[in-house]
Structures are given as structure tokens and as C-alpha cells.
């Protein structure tokens, strides 16, 4: 089955049989009735000339003209019928509409050329034979008139059909492209929503990790200092006062940073999200306890230069910590330095929680193209009282996520000596 595209102007299919729309069926039936009436009328003079009964010629004309109804179903057959009845001087509408339909259909161009040539030749021959007997003129005029009639009845319908068919195919191509673009836009919208949800989840995870890093460490040290304060409150009032100052300053710093992060969650703006990565400047501690305080951090977050102050903070809390630095310091991206700092910070917090009294070694190595950190603690004595510090069990998970997110290597686990070791290697770029 072929189609001219006229029935594709609307959406959906609601026509009978091979018609896709009722309007197309009504149009073909109307053209078929007009063609049948024309052929029936032209059958009367044909019957008189051929000596046939008029009723037979009229019936023949009705059947031949009615075949135009099948133009969308079998356009080749309709054109062949029109060529076949050309000698009878009937089927004007049938031939013109049939050629138009054939040219507009998706049929091979070779078939169109053959049938168009046959129709042109048949029209020329019939017109020449008819005109030669009716017009008293020379042969040249008859040839010119016959050629003109053949071209006029054949070429315009073919050209119009080719134009309509090309336009229809172009519109279908544009419609398919528009549908494809619509599907792609819908898919992109779905993916954008997925990415947005993923980004929200990642942002929640990042904020939770930051809160764990910057708050849990100070709170853990506050608990350690509070225990020390309770132990020396009666024996050494001066030391108790220093420990109390430490606890107060650490608490204020933790509240400041917590308030900053909660402000990011409350605002939800991009600027606030960027500011949430920065740690606020905190009030300096008293001179007597300056080494115990966390370092003041700029807008770019903590850096490797502040590791010594972080280690000293743990020393003041009573931990035996040694720091070893190897290699020449070079410039690292801010996220690399922040991640290295957070790994050491979290590892020291775990030492306060799970290995009080144990000797701790913090190693920092600057290598070619990478920076490595390691925090290793020895075994804890059996008589050491462990502070009651809650643990969420996410410290190692958070460190691993940070390091792997930058393309680094993270290893943690117990040592042969009975302690625990945390190692991270981060690429310099």
C-alpha cells in the first residue's frame, strides 16, 4: 500500500479500510463519483462511434471512473486504467488525479518515469488521431497541438505530485526530528532531576562529614579536658583553671563552626554553600593555652601548615604525640591540603576515643607528585581508663570517601604491635 500524505495531515486513524482519516475517504469517494460521471458521459459518444449499446458504454464508464476511489491503495493500477481507456477519449479526471497520486506516493522513480511516459505517449497519439481528422491544417500544427495537450495533461500533475510528496516527506522528517528532540529533552530533564537529587545527596553527605570533622574533634577534646579538670580540680587549681579555659574556648569554637554550617543548610544558596567550606576566624586563646587551641583557619579551610598546631592540641590534652615531616613542602591544591588535614584530625580523634594513653606518631611525607599522611598509635595499657566518648562508626568511612574522591589511596587497620594505623596518599594535582 502507498499513500500520498494527504491522510497524514492529522493525528490518529479514524477512517475506514485503507484510509487513515474519514476526510480522506470522503475526498476519494467524491473524486471517484466525479470521475465516474465524467466517464459515463464520455461513454455516450464513444458508444455511438463504436456501434455499441449506450447502456453498456455508460456502465463501462461508471466502472472505469469509479476506480479512482482506489488511488491511495493501488495508484499504479489507477494510472494503468487511465492509460488503457485513453483511446476511448474518457477518463480525463482519472488520468490527471491518478498521475498526481502516483507522483506523490513513495514509489520508485523508475516506475513513475515509465508510467508517466506511457501516459504522455497515449495522450499524444489519441489527440493526434482525433485532431488530424477534425482540423483541416498541416501536419506541423497537428503535431504541436497534440504535443501541447499531452504535456498539459501529464507534466503538471506529475510535477505537482512530486512537490507535494517532497513537502510531505520534509514535514514528516521535521516532525520526527521534533519528536526526537522532545524525547531527548524529556530524557535530559529526567537526567537533570537525577543529577540534582544526586547533588543534594552529595551535599548532605559533605555537610554531615564537615560537621563530623570540625565539631567531633573539639568535642572529644573537651571531654578529655573535662575529665582532666575533674581529676586535678582539688590538687592543682591553676591547672584546673587552664583546663577550664580550654574547654570553654573549644566549646565556643565548635558552636561558631556549627552555627556556620547550619546557616548553609538554612539558606540553601550557592554563596552560602561556598562559604560553608570555609571555617570562620575564631577568637585567639589566652597566651598560656595558645598551643591547645585549634588554628584559626582562613576562607580556604585548613592547610598542612596547621598540622603542627593540631598535634600540639592533642599533646596539651595529655596524649604523647610525635610528628615527623619528610621531604620539601610544595604547593598543593586547597582540597588536597584540607583532606590531608581532616584525615589526621579524624585519626587523632579516634586515638583520643579508643587509645588513651598510647603513644602516637604522625608522619607527613612530601613526595614527587603526591603527599602522604600516616597516624599510628601503639597499644593501650590495660590500666588506662577510657573516656566515655560516643562513636558513630563513620570516621573511617568519611576519611576513605574524602581520599578516594581525590583519586588517592586510603589504608587503615591494626598493626602487629597491637595498635592501629591510618594511612592516606593524595595526588598533588
The coarse overall form would be rod-shaped
Roughly how much helix do the residues carry, as a percent range?
55-70%
- Radius of gyration, whole Å: 47 Å
Beginning-to-end CA distance, first to last residue: 65 Å
Number of separate domains: 2
At the first level of CATH, the class of the largest domain is: Alpha Beta
The count of β-strands is 5
Biggest sheet character: 5 strands, mixed
What is the fold named in CATH at topology level of the largest domain?
Heat Shock Protein 90
CATH architecture of the largest domain: 2-Layer Sandwich
Number of helix segments?
Answer: 11
Description:
There is one protein chain. 62% of the residues lie in helices and 9% in strands. The protein has 429 residues and is α+β, with helices and mostly antiparallel strands. It folds into two domains: 6-188, no CATH class; 191-427, Histidine kinase-like ATPase, C-terminal domain (Heat Shock Protein 90). The chain has a five-stranded mixed beta sheet with strand order 1-2-3-5-4, with helices on one face. The longest helix has 94 residues, at 139-232. The two termini are 65 Å apart. The relative contact order is 0.06.
What's a quick, concise take on this entry?
The chain has eleven helices and five strands; from the N terminus they run αααααααααβαββαββ. The chain has two domains: 6-188, no CATH class; 191-427, Histidine kinase-like ATPase, C-terminal domain (Heat Shock Protein 90), CATH 3.30.565.10.
List the helices and strands and how they pair.
Blueprint: H1 22-50, H2 54-66, H3 75-84, H4 92-104, H5 109-134, H6 139-232, H7 237-267, H8 270-276, H9 307-316, E1 320-326, H10 334-354, E2 359-367, E3 370-377, H11 395-405, E4 409-414, E5 420-427
Parallel strand pairs: 1-2
Antiparallel strand pairs: 2-3, 3-5, 4-5
Amino acid at each position: 500500500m502507498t499513500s500520498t500524505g494527504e491522510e497524514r495531515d492529522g493525528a490518529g486513524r479514524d477512517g475506514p479500510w485503507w484510509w487513515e482519516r474519514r476526510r480522506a475517504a470522503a475526498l476519494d469517494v467524491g473524486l471517484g463519483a466525479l470521475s465516474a460521471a465524467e466517464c459515463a458521459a464520455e461513454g455516450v459518444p464513444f458508444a455511438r462511434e463504436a456501434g455499441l449499446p449506450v447502456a453498456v458504454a455508460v456502465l463501462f464508464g461508471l466502472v472505469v471512473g469509479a476506480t479512482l476511489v482506489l488511488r491511495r491503495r493501488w495508484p499504479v493500477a489507477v494510472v494503468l486504467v487511465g492509460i488503457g481507456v485513453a483511446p476511448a477519449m474518457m477518463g480525463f479526471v482519472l488520468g490527471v488525479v491518478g498521475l498526481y497520486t502516483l507522483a506523490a506516493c513513495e514509489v520508485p522513480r523508475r516506475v513513475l518515469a515509465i508510467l508517466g511516459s506511457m501516459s504522455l505517449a497515449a495522450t499524444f497519439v489519441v489527440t493526434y488521431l482525433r485532431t488530424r481528422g477534425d482540423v483541416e491544417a498541416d501536419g506541423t500544427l497537428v503535431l504541436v497541438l497534440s504535443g501541447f495537450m499531452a504535456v498539459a495533461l501529464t507534466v503538471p500533475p506529475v510535477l505537482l505530485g512530486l512537490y507535494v510528496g517532497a513537502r510531505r516527506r520534509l514535514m514528516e522528517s521535521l516532525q520526527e526530528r521534533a519528536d526526537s528532540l522532545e524525547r531527548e529533552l524529556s530524557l535530559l530533564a529526567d537526567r537533570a532531576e537525577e543529577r540534582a537529587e544526586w547533588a543534594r545527596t552529595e551535599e548532605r553527605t559533605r555537610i554531615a562529614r564537615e560537621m563530623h570533622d570540625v565539631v567531633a574533634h573539639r568535642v572529644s577534646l573537651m571531654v578529655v579536658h573535662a575529665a582532666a579538670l575533674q581529676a586535678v580540680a582539688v590538687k592543682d587549681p591553676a591547672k584546673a583553671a587552664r583546663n577550664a579555659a580550654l574547654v570553654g574556648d573549644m566549646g565556643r569554637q565548635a558552636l561558631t563552626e556549627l552555627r556556620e554550617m547550619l546557616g548553609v543548610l538554612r539558606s540553601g544558596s550557592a554563596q552560602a554553600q561556598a562559604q560553608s567550606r570555609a571555617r570562620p576566624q575564631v577568637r585567639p586563646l589566652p597566651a598560656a593555652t595558645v598551643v591547645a587551641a585549634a588554628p584559626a583557619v582562613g576562607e580556604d579551610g585548613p592547610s598542612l601548615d596547621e598540622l603542627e598546631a593540631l598535634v600540639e592540641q592533642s599533646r596539651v590534652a595529655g596524649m604523647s604525640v610525635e610528628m615527623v615531616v619528610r621531604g620539601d613542602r610544595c604547593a598543593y591544591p586547597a582540597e588536597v591540603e584540607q583532606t590531608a588535614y581532616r584525615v589526621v584530625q579524624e585519626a587523632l580523634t579516634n586515638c583520643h576515643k579508643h587509645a588513651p594513653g598510647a603513644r602516637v606518631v604522625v608522619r607527613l611525607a612530601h613526595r614527587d607528585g603526591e603527599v602522604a599522611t600516616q597516624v599510628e598509635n601503639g597499644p593501650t595499657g590495660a590500666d588506662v581508663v577510657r573516656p566515655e566518648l560516643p562513636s558513630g562508626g563513620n570516621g573511617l568511612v568519611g576519611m576513605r570517601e574524602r581520599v578516594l574522591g581525590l583519586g588517592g589511596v586510603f589504608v587503615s587497620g591494626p598493626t602487629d604491635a597491637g595498635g592501629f594505623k591510618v594511612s592516606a596518599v593524595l595526588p598533588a594535582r
